Structures are given as structure tokens and as C-alpha cells.
Amino acid sequence: MGDVRLKTTITVNGEPCALDVDTRTTLLDALREHLKLTGSKKGCDHGQCGACTVLVNGVRINSCLSLAVMHDGDAVTTIEGVGTPDNLHPVQKAFLTHDAYQCGYCTPGQICSTLGMLKEMEAGVPSQETPAGARPVLSDDEIRERMSGNICRCSAYPQIVAAIKDVAGVAA
Amino acid sequence: MTSVHDWTPNNPVKENRSGLIGKPVDRYEGPLKVTGTAPYAYEVQPPSPPAYGVMVGAAIATGRISGVDIAEAQATPGVLVVWTHLNAPFQAPKGTKAHPRSSAGSRPALENDRVLFFGQPVALVVGETLEAATAGAHRVKLTYAEDAPDVDFPGSLDRAISPVGEEDMEVGDFPRGFAASPVQIDATWSTPIQNHCQMEPCASTVWFEGEKCVAHTSIQMVKPAQHGLAETLGIPRDDVHLLTRYIGGGFGGKGQTYDDLILAALAARALGRPVKVAYTRQQMMHGTIHRPATVMQVQLGAEKDGRLNAFSMMTWTHCHREGNFTEHASNFGRALYAAPNRLTGHRLVKLDLPGAGPMRAPGEASGTLALECAMDELAEKLGIDPVELRTLNEPPTDPENGRPFSMRQLVRCLREGAQQFGWDRRLPTPGLVRDGRWLVGMGMAAAIRGNFLLPAKCSFSVDADGVITVRQGMTDIGTGTYTVLAQIAAETMGVPLGQVKVEIGDSELPPAPGSGGQFGAATAGSAALAAGQNLRTAIAELATGDEASPLFGGRPADVTFQDGVVAIANRSETLASLIRRAAPEGLTVEGEIKPAQDAREWSQQTYGGHYCEVGVDPVTGEVRVRRMLGVFAAGRILNAKTARSQLTGGMIWGIGSALTEGNPVDVRYGSLLNQDLAQYLAPVQADIGDLEAIMLDEVDDKANPMGIKGVGELGNSGAGAAVANAIYNACGVRVRDYPITPDKLLAGMIARGM
Amino acid sequence: MRPFTYERAVDALGAVRSAAATPGARFIAGGTNLLDLMKLEIEQPQHLIDVGRLDLAGIAPMPDGGLRIGASTSNSTVAADPQVLARYPVLSQAIVAGGSPQLRNKATVGGNLLQRTRCAYFYDTTKPCNKRAPGSGCSALEGLNRNAAIFGASTACIATHTSDMAVALAALGAQVETLAASGESRTTPVIDLYRLPGDTPQIETSLAAGDLITAVVLPPPPAGGQIYRKARDRASYAGGLASVAVAGGQVALGMVALKPWRAHATEAALAAGASPTEAIARELEGASPLGRNDFKLPLVARLSAAAIQEANGRGA
Fold this sequence. Notes:
- The complex is a heterotrimer.
- By secondary structure, chain A is of the alpha+beta class.
- Chain A has 5 helices and 5 strands; from the N terminus they run ββαβββαααα.
- Chain A has helices at residues 27-34, 90-97, 107-123, 140-146, 157-167; strands at 5-12, 15-22, 53-56, 59-62, 75-77.
- In chain A, strands 2-1-5-3-4 form a 5-stranded mixed sheet, with helices on both faces.
- In chain A, a hairpin with a 2-residue loop joins strand 3 and strand 4.
- The model of chain A has no long low-confidence stretch (mean pLDDT 96).
- By secondary structure, chain B is α+β, with helices and mostly antiparallel strands.
- Among the domains of chain B are: 4-38 and 454-594, Aldehyde oxidase/xanthine dehydrogenase, molybdopterin binding domain (Aldehyde Oxidoreductase, domain 4), CATH 3.30.365.10; 360-452 and 600-751, Aldehyde Oxidoreductase, domain 4 (2-Layer Sandwich), CATH 3.30.365.
- Chain C is 32% helix and 18% strand.
- A 5-stranded antiparallel sheet of chain C has the order 4-5-8-6-7.
- The longest helix of chain C has 20 residues, at 296-315.
- The interface between A and B is large, with 66 and 66 residues.
């Protein structure tokens, strides 16, 4: 079989993007190689590190484990849609202030994951840290468990927790 | 010839008039990193659309490629080029140095039919798209004449020999001293192969501009990469412009060139268009270096009062058949504790495993997992507190060579740590503390890591706006190089941080050795300070020699630099107005640092103390680090924020070494079991409890002109041992075979009747 | 990946008919496991039928007091569902013990059930594996098999099934509802969905080619407390060494076999009044560890006894 291409329209950071992609193209590669939005990172390409985390219709997912053609009509938010160097989002500012990154490669995924995580908290999605039957509270351990889908090999983990607590308005 | 005494005079960094040295400022490149706009090597946008290269790894550990069938790969739609050793372009033979002063020789890829390790790149497929190239790579059919791999490290200890050029270090008479000691510890620890797992896999984007090869890659050291690529391609070194501006983690694993760079360059030249090549995560595990496994025997002989009579640490380790790397896990022990009778050394066996090499705190990371646990066992045997045992054995001078310590605050680190952590609440008898379902214990360990200074250059420029630009062929692998260079520049030139630009990671900038061995900040920073001092001199001469300047006629030595203003007493003007008028094209000067001739007359180390509290689940043997504190002494700290991050990061590496990380060898195939990040378990957020790192005030005048030392490796040294000792205190089980996984701890608890 | 065609299914019947009519067709919904394996060419579909947006989502009460969970409901949605949290907490706990939040947001109930083993030799395509390349041999048998099965393995395959969710579903006695190309709907107990390896480890389920999982149906929850516990090497985002789901007197074990292992012997012993420790020991009499995975016996024994005890406490 030769290559199969399909036309797909994905709204990325508020802009409708008409793509003509190989069916094999992942959402991550569509962002990075086709749309030149290289903020979403490829750390493992198998859903094992979280560096590719983006928000699809407001929900955080691993963009490496999804095909671009599966997202026709979806609204995708990448790190580029969160804020810019001159106009940082509060979560980005908190990461900067708390030094919640070192090499920076996992950072866009951590930040997108934080945004998704805070929404999940609001929605009452449980984690294995949440006591049975209780509504989750954003404790340090809840943050740690809920951010465990994003590996940081530089290990800025304590700083990431501090940044998230800061931005979520929890006393650090 | 430089002497450390030449570094004693005051300089702008020591004076720190603006207070920028040590200040916890945000990272210089932070706004780019938190917005995803810092382009890493695979993300640099080339001048025309790139082709995509995908490598194929060998399916055997050792032998020869006996058959090559690339027909299907070539026929794959979108595939442009398929190379194996049969048709790869010419490269200079391995090790060639056409230029005798090249810092690295040729390292050809796809060189011949020999397979030297599992996963060795043996083919390259370049396609119009990543999907096409990947599909093509899967269609490359290779057959092998396989030799039986010699990869069983535990089974080859008796073949291990002293590394070439190394002798055991002997002081006094260890066997006699040990035999005569009333209290002895003699035990063996083992550590597994570990992988760096930098979040960014090695990657390169390369194109040619005429004869010039423009290569963006992810590497810790610029010059060897530039020279090695030029030598391999057989072109003049100046025809390679190598850039590595943002690096997604290094940890020692990106200290050398890999085939992504070589193959991307070859393909870019052959195709006449930009080519990008990256290792897949799976390929990283075998295709790049790893921390080798060790077996470490520690023998401690002590008097009943706790003083060490005899100290020995022998390390067995391995490296690649054609490699030359020793995991010097015994070395740090030579400077740590006093004992009149000493024996330390290493035994190395060469195997058909992938390349062994440096990984964060090489030597200390593995070695402290043995020695610092042995000290814990000795303390228990003696009935002495582990902190006191270490204090008792504090040497007045270097215990091997008698040299004075340039600065040694180990005991202070240990005491401060004990106090801040609440060490006095620890019960020496294990297994007595419970919190819910968890058994709780505390452990501690000492940290040590040597200090080095290497030669480096740096340039400083000032332009007509008074903006200072620092240029250096240095790298920032997440360590904070951009930021500390900006701080040094701003402090030295008396300008606000916002008036400084930093350009690094470029082979056309003044050379620096790069990031590694904890020497980066001291080396690069000292060169920057020198450049700054030279620029101050040039500006002072400019101002005092310029009739239009209010400073005219003054003594250059009296010129001060602060708040963007140059002044002599109350005569002043802004730096910008001076330059705009007197040197509108700007000024550029270079500075240089060289190691002091007499630096080795002092024993130079950084130190620390780790304190850890863990919970052990008595049902499953699962361990959770509840809290951990490190107190460190590492010279003057340039940036309290980035240094703390380095240290806590290192501590977490210690937690990973203690609890989760390791890659077993399947001796049948010569391959590692864990080939991705689901199988190789680097710590995640949930593994890490409350963590803190404290840095003591220190200035080490023997280290370099700034009195700073490094922290990148120090946090890792000893951290895992503190975890292991805490586990013992929690549940009474000592596991000497790392990592301490639930299966091993469970077996120990069952054996204790728990 | 090999090239493939792609269609977005309009309705379930259309999806199963397309699957029956198209060679090499596979369903995709979340894709978190299928794409993982396609990238390694362990899976090589020629045609993907995207069922992710079919009307198979949603969680609704059943007339008998049970609960029906649509197959394309995301794992996160199930874990957060108030009815699940209130009446089937073991299911919610099991789901959040697996993968990462990002994976659970994407992965669906149907896909979770059909995830393939995480055996390292299955993933390493340079090694023999009867599941991946039937007849090539089992590399794990004499290999680094610390995480191998202790129940129901064969010399052809000693891998485990690694779904956490499926263990809870097994304990709850859930049924899987499937749709065939004929239009016929069928229900199968979750524990019968999976086949033990025998000589044909490549055949993993009792589904016929082209069958689509449309829902999971939970019977009313059994009386008694519920709990899921999992032991693992890393605190989160890691496969298990062993797990146990308890729902009243019903017990299932995870990561010990190529299927979620319903501990019938334990259940019978508990019903007969045995202590949790005695009851789990009955089950483990049937275990066949291989050496490197011997630790799973005491681990399962201790983990299960503690979980049963705790569930009893909750149910009281």
C-alpha cells in the first residue's frame, strides 16, 4: 500500500489549521513537523514520559499516542497557545519564578499537564491519593500523584510542586 | 604560570557590589523554555524543508552483518536514501586526525560489517517524511553471523584486571590494620547498569551552506563534536559550524558525538538538503552510553571507640570491548575518612555490552552506595551514632597524600543537617516507628565530589547601547550556564541583568570545555570574569583617554562600574554614552582562565550531608521517601536558585539509584531488558516527598578566582545511601544489591520473620 | 508504521460491517496501546476504523440495579463517575492505579480491556516471542522473567495481563457486551473474555474477528467492602508487580496471569469461614512460580490478606 493522506482540520490555539497529512502522522508530529509548533516535545513517542502533553478540547493527553486524523474538528491547545515570552500565563510565570525546570525539555508538557490537572481537580476527578469517597484537595501528595505522568529527568519535582501550589493559590 | 595565589586579590565577583553574585535570579533563557520557544536541535528550522533520517539498530550484540537486503526499504514510498556499511559515503577511517590538534578524531558511522554492541546503528533510511523514513527503516533486512556475546559481568569478575595505567592506592598496611581491628565490616554491594534517560533523545539537524556544514546537535562539549565531525567528513575544521544552544538534558551521556550527527551530516551533503536525525527512545538505551554496573567490596576496621584503623574499597566494573572507561567508584573514598591503613583500587573487564561512560557523579554515585552504607553498618556495630562516627574519622589533611584541604566543611554540613532534620528523633534500633501502615526510618550519608578547573576562553563585547554580550563556546544542559554567565557579566560590568546578552553553544565562539564533571560554572565563569576584567580595563582606558569624557585624565585604575555608569569619584557618564561617542562600533575583548600550576598542592572537594526519612510498607516492601534534606558546602554560590535546583535534582537521582533504576543484562542476547521509559523506571513526582537543599556560606580561594565550586554532581553523591540507610532503620533489612525493589525488601522482611 | 487507510465510523453496526469487509482492519478509539504497538510494527493494521466518537460512551443504571458503561467512555470518566465512586469504588481505584492521567483521559474502557501484555520480550522485536511471532519461542521462559505469571502460564508464554481496570471488573463479575458483524449482540463474563496462553498465546481473547466491545455491564455490587491494592516498583505511572481487587467476598488478582485471575479458591475458603491469610494460601497452592518471580507468592499472599482485611473493615 502506498501512503495514504487525508485532509483534516484541527483548531490549534484558536486557529483552524487545514492539514493534509499521512494517516500515520501523530498529532505530535503534525504539530511539530507540519505546523512548526515545536513547543510540544518528543521524549519517548510512546506515552511514557508526558513531554508531548497537550490539551484536546480542554483535556490533557499524550499527543504522541494519537493520530492527527483522529482529531478532525478538535480544539488543541499547545504550550504556544498558553502564553508567550512577553505575555506569560500565570502557570508559566510560576514555573519561571520557582525554577520548576532545568533543561526545559519536559517543561511545555509539565505546564500543559498542570492546566489540565487543575481542571480535573475542579471537576472532582479522583486519583490514587484521594481518600475513598472524598473530594480531592490539592495537597502536595495530590499534586505529586497527578503530575506523575510527566517525567522530569533533571528532577525539578519539588520546584514543580511549589510552582503549582503558588499558581493554585495554596499556601506554599 | 598561574598560581592560586594570583587569585587572591579582589575582583568584581568577590566584591559583588551590585549583589548579583549569589542572587536567586530567574533563568536567563527561562521565558523561552516555559513557552516552548527555545529551539532544541531537532526543532531548529533549516533554510529549506528537511529530509528525515531514521537509524536501524543491530539485532545482535557481536558478530558480523552477513546479509543486506535494502530493496524493500528503497521501494518504500517517500524513501530517498538507504545506507548500510555497503554503500555509506566515504568517511575518514576511525581515529583519523588530519589536523593534529583536533580534540577528537574521526568516528565514522556504518563503518564496516562488524557489530560491536546490540543496537549499534547499522543502517540509515532518509525519507521525505518522518513516517516514510520510519517505515523504510522497518523494511531494512539484515542477517547476521552472530558470535556468542561475552556480557556476563557478575560471571567475569575473576577476569577483571587493573585498568591500564592505574595502580591500587596503598597507604600503611591494610591487611594488618584490618586484621588487628576489633570491629570489622566486610561486605559487598552491587549496582546495575543505569541509563541517563535525558528527556531529549540525541538529535541533529544539519545542512550545508556552500562548503560549510551547519550542524545543530544536542551535545555537552562543543569543540570535540565540531572537530570529530570535520575529521569524519574529511573537511577543514572551520568548515563545520556546530551549534548546541538548547540541550534537553545531558548528565554525562551527551559528552560525546553519536551517529545522529555523523549520519545527518553525510545525508545532508549527499542529498544537498537539510537532514534531521534523532535517536528513538528505544535506541537511546543501547545506542548511547550507560553507567556501568559495579561490584564493590568495602572493608572497614575500627577501634572500639570508632576510629578507623583500616579502610579498603575495591570496585569491579566493566566497559565496552573497545572502550576505555572505568567507573572510578573507589576514588572518592581516598579523601573522605581518616585511617592509617588504606587500600583502594579498581578492576575492569571489557565486555560486548554497549559503551560504558560517565553518568551524573561518575564514581561517587555508585561508590557512596557502598561506602556510606558500610559506615552505617559500622556505626550500628559500634553503637555509635552515624554522624558521630563520621565526625570521629574526620581527617586533618588528605588521608592519602597529606595535602591540606583547600576548604573542608563536611562536619559542618553533617551537623547542620542533623539539627535541621531532627536527627535526634531517630531511634537507632530499626523497626520501632510506625505511621499508619508504614514503618518509618531515618538514614544519613556524607557527600563528596572533587573540584576541577579547566582552561577556557570567553569574550565580552559592549555596544553603543551599553549592552554587554558574553560569547563562549560553552553549553547549558539545564545547569544554569546562561544565567550565571549573565550574572557574572552584569556584576563585573556594573550593568543591570537586562543589559546583558549571552551567546553560547556555538563552535565559532571562544572555546570552553563544556558541561561535565561539575567543572562547568567554575571554568566558564572564571573565563567570563577574566573577559570582564579585560573589558573594564579597555573601557577605563577609553574613558580616561577621551577628552569628551568627564573621566578624561583620570587613572584607569580608579574607574568604577555600577548601575550602567562609569565613574571616577563624582565624575561620571553612562556606559552607553561613552561607547556611543568614543567607540561607536563597540568594543570586544577576550579573557582566559587556566588551571593554576600549584592547584594540586591542595586537596579540593565539595561536601555535603544527606538526611532521609522513608516509609516502608511492611506488607509489600514498597518504599516511599517522605522527606529528605541535603546540606552542602561547595564554594561561593553564583545563583542560589539554580544551584539549589541542581542539588535537589542530584538528590532525586540518588533516590532513583536506591529504589527504582537499573537495567538488567540478558546474557543470552547481550542486550538490556529495559528499552523504554515504561520499563526503565526513572523517578516520577510521586516518588519524591518533601525535599530541601541548603548551601553553606563558603569561598574557596584555591579553586579559582571567584572562589566557587560546582554542585551538579554533589547532590547525587551519597543521596542513595541515605535512602538505603533509612530503609534499614525503618525495617531492619539491608539490601546490598541495588536498586532496593519490593521483591528484595520483602525477602529480607520475611527472613526477619516480619 | 505501515501505511493504512482510516475511516471514522458513523455507527456501531457500520463499524463492525466495515471491519468484516476490510482485510487487516482494526478498531481504534483511544489508541494509547494500539499506536504504541503500531510504532514498533508489532501491530500492523491495514485499515483503522475509528470508533472513538461513536455513541458508545456514557454510564447508565440498569434495571437490575447494575451499571452499564459504554465502551468508548474514557477511563478518567469512569473513575470520576459518581455512581461508580459510590457503588463500585474498587473500579475507580483500579483505574486510577493504572497509567497516567493523560493516558486515562485518552484510553477507553474497551481499549483498556484489550490492551496487550507489557512483557519486555513482546516489545523487543529482535527477540523470539510466541505472542508476536507464533512459533518463534518464548524469550521470557529462560530470561529475565521477574514479572512473569504464576498462574495459568504455559511453556509457550508466561506473560501477564497488566490492566488494573480488568482486575476490578473481574472481582465485580462484570460482563462484556460485544457486537458482531451479523448485528448480533452478545455478553461474556470479563474473565471469559481472556484466554490463557496454552499453545496459542497469539490468540488472546474469545472475541471473533471484527467483534466490537460496545459496553461493560456491572451487576449490582456484592455486599461488603471494596478495595483495590497494587504493589509496584515505582510509586506511580508503573505497571504492577501484583494487585488485588476485593468486592465483598469476591476477589481477583492482577499481574499474576495472562488474564485477571478470579481467586475462586480464596472466595470458597472465605465463604467457609477461613481467615484471609488461609484463604489466599488456598489460591496460591495452584501457583507455579519460575524462580525469578517466586516473590510474587508472598507478595500476593500479604497484599491480598491485607486487602481482604481492609475490605471487611469497610464493609462492616
